[in-house]
Amino acid sequence: MTDPYDPPLREVLDALGHAVAITDTDLVVRVWNTAAEQLLGWTRDEAVGRSILDLGIAPEDPGQASELAAQVLAGRPWEGSFQIRAKNGGPLIGRFRCTPLRGPDGAVTSIVVTGRDALDSRHQQQKALARLALMSRAGLLLGTSLEVNRTLSTVAELLVPGIADHCFIDLFDETGRLVRLVNAHTVGDSDTGWVPVGQAPRYPSDHPVAEALRTGRGVLLDDVRRLDATAAAAPNPAVVKWARRVGLRAVIAAPLGGPHGVRGVLCVMTSVSGRRYDTDDLDMVEELAARAGLALDNAALYDRQRSLSLTLQRSLLPGMLPRVDGVEVAYQYRPGADAEVGGDFYDVIPLPTGRVGIVIGDVQGRGAHAAAVMGQLRAALRAYAVLDLPPARLLTHLDELVQGLDDSLMVTCVYAVYDPFTRRCVVANAGNPPPLLLHPSACASLAGPADAPLGMGGGTPYEQHEYLVPPGGGLLLYTDGVVERRDLRVDQGVNRLRTALAEPPGGPEELCEAALRAAPGEPEDDQAVLAVRTADAELPMSRLTLPALPASASSARRHTREVLAEWGLREHREIAELLVSELVTNSIRHALDAAWLVPRPGAAFDVSRLRRCRRLELVLRRGRNALWGEVYDGDVRLPRMRVAGELDEGGRGLHLVDALSTQWGVRPTRRGKAVWFELTIDGAEPALARRRPGGGS
């Protein structure tokens, strides 16, 4: 008996690598291709017209074969391995798939049986290699990226057309709502009717996606008519129309599961390619979905840690920079390409008498630990700055602190103290790229090599250098992420930065932007920039040198009265005169007490030291909201408040200063000390002094 199919169709069936047999509802063979002849040994003429139960079914298995046939005739496909016997009696383990075919009325009209030798190592090897290659590429994408949403989109592009014609991925959002993340189709296919990305799909309870989400297991559906029936209840009938139009054939839905439950679903489908899915495909999609679910969990953990680090970092860095007389300050901070929080830090610290401390640095390492160490250092640095320590001594204390925190910790840092009244800037550098000194039409690195990073100083004292910042000039401090790239050394990056700022732009914000654009390529490290622009006009300041004699107190009061009248601060003259008188009198009293000048036994008497103590200097400064008075002398002893007895003639001066001033203090200088006070004044803008040689007024 011959089969009823046309020769062209028989040629197509014979070209297939799998054995193909088609039976009617009585299980009588109507089609038998060449691969079936090769697998079982019966020729086409011998097989067509006979019951398939008589061809290859072992004598002991007819009951099981009849049960499977009844299942398929009922409209339920079957796939699995089955022991058969070839015509020559030899046993075989076959991998078979039985699919019912339906007529226009939906009734089963015939059965298609495809099979192969389950022990055919060559076939298995080829299929395994293809799946292994796909899993390797997808696994690499999922395992090397923490931007999972974008990575899942790339995985969908691998699956289509790798093993599917269509793919979508849905994820649960923070509220537990299922949201479409990815839609992928073969080239040229329309996705009209599909749930758009970003919107929430709805599935009937017996939909394969709903079943996968409910059970936590993958679902294989190779009878698309079942999908059509359930999809008819879906809120979007356009999907049903699309499925019928493209000839949807098979569906696999697998949950994206992880240690913390199901996070979504991956669904692949075939149509125009004619592919059929088997349980091996189901296993592969389930494995891929499991890896994607684990990657989602890892990404969620990373996001929580990053959010914690960012919150910690933002809480520890200054939100707004203080307003300082005579300077404009701006900053820029940008995280590196790997998106993990680093330890870059910066700060602007108002100091007594209108000066300002400027700091920038970088803690080695990344993540919450680096951010926490950065916070500790910034707090310690502010505490040391309040003590008005010179930059070199401050870095020495920080170096000791870093060594105590962690032997392996390394921190780079630049600390500078700028005086906008004198335009002098004192800088100490612990391993950071050199700050840049900006002139109105030039840019230069501050001279002198950087000292060892904090934590690696080994007790070696840090050095500080003093510079004069020109009117209209400025300073630029930055971390190594600004100038370093994978193919660019730090020194090369510094040269590029210096060239880019050869003609510095106007404001500090523009300086920061220009600095971040100087080095090419994507930065791998965090970038922090702090820019300072100095005013063109000089701030009001007055200097008066006096001999260390009792009569000088009267001269200091008269000078204070005249200067405050010139500055329009007559209402503050009385308190300012009293404070100046107390500081000058105290300085004179101790300068005349020469007992501390007596040299140690065997040492020579220092005449220059005596001369320095025989004179003092009064400095008055007027800021936007404050008036400062300073008294410099050559006595290295620091004054302190003490409790005066009822009969004591002295000991109450500093108590008076403490009561009348907004604040007061003392700091060591290279030639002795400076005692200062501050008075708060109204917010009127100060009258800027005329430019005079030497910077005084």
From TrEMBL:
In the UniProt record, does the keyword Hydrolase occur? yes
- Coiled coil regions in record: none
Stored CDD domains:
HATPase_RsbW-like, PAS
What one GO molecular function would you report for this record?
A: metal ion binding
Ranges for domain PAS? 5-76
Q: Does the keyword Glycoprotein apply?
A: no
- Keywords for this entry? ATP-binding, Hydrolase, Kinase, Magnesium, Manganese, Metal-binding, Nucleotide-binding, Phosphoprotein, Protein phosphatase, Transferase
Q: Which domain of life is it from?
A: Bacteria
Q: What is its EC number?
A: 3.1.3.16
Q: Name one GO biological process term.
A: regulation of DNA-templated transcription
**Reactions that this protein is recorded to catalyse:** O-phospho-L-seryl-[protein] + H2O = L-seryl-[protein] + phosphate
Q: Name one Pfam family in it.
A: SpoIIE
Q: What class of enzyme is it?
A: hydrolase
The entry's function note states: Primarily acts as an independent SigF regulator that is sensitive to the osmosensory signal, mediating the cross talk of PknD with the SigF regulon. Possesses both phosphatase and kinase activities. The kinase domain functions as a classic anti-sigma factor-like kinase to phosphorylate the anti-anti-sigma factor domain at the canonical regulatory site, and the phosphatase domain antagonizes this activity.
Q: What is this protein called?
A: protein-serine/threonine phosphatase
The protein's organism comes out as Carbonactinospora thermoautotrophica
